[in-house]
């Protein structure tokens, strides 16, 4: 179930690609006699729910069911290869931006009286917007959040990953020369972003002598990215119903996020202002030490140091 789970980053609800019958059959193969009805009951107790298809793919999208499945299989193969080698696997993404101030935060808390908050969410009355970018260490079950105050750009995304590597990753994996990054196919870490690839080359691969393998989840499949339901949903539950009065308050809730399975989270406040609209030229793109994977190269590629 570990690698077949998706989840909502806000509510924590989870679901799986496997049917209850298939799960029961796999359990029976290892000597656990169980029916599909019992599997369904146990899944419900583990906060899994049934999900229907959502019409979220645009008519221009060429992502078929077969292509999606092939990409999931590719990600699974890469993940197993890195686990066997003991090399780091990180899941990355940007979390929903949060308005900082005395504003309503969805959820409930135990209180004797309801807390009064502003009746309108006017940005002009806030301290600003927090842009959390997360790095989830898949094998260590550790989270890292860079709480930005500027635009969520590819430069901000890679700076956040590099900061994680300097402060935590390099210490946790001191002999690592390879790293696997699991990311969505859009946004600041999108598969079509030239700046994302350029920044990875410059700040992660060249600077730290790392060969970076990147696998993107298919369009419309971001909920399968582990960071969504293993890190972001836990943060959302921890600060549910509590106004984020200041950036320090937001950082406090992020840093105190924990689970029974051992998740802990660190966080930093990034005050750097990131410029939008930065273009990477054809010449700069051609200079990248970029190797496309033979399977679905748009979503799977490797960036090696330019000087070995």
Give a structural overview.
By secondary structure, this protein is α/β, with parallel strands linked by helices. It has eight helices and eleven strands. Strands 3, 4, 5, 6, 7, 8, 9, 10 and 11 form a nine-stranded mixed beta sheet that branches. Strands 1-2 form a two-stranded antiparallel sheet. α1 crosses α2 and α4 runs parallel beside α5.
Q: How would you sum up this structure in a few lines?
A:
The protein has 308 residues and is an alpha/beta fold. The protein is 33% helix and 19% strand.
User: How many structural units, i.e. domains?
Assistant: 2
Mean pLDDT: 86
What are the segments in which pLDDT stays under 50 over at least 5 consecutive residues?
55-60
Number of strands: 11
State the order of secondary-structure elements, H for helix, E for strand: EEHHHEEEEHEHEHHEHEE
Oligomer: single chain
From the alpha carbons, calculate the radius of gyration and give it in angstroms.
Answer: 20 Å
Distance between the termini: 39 Å
Overall geometry comes to: globular
CATH topology of the largest domain: Nucleotidyltransferase, domain 5
Strand content: 15-25%
Count of helix runs:
8
Q: Kindly name the structural category.
A: alpha/beta
Largest sheet: 9 strands, mixed
* Corresponding CATH architecture of the largest domain: 2-Layer Sandwich
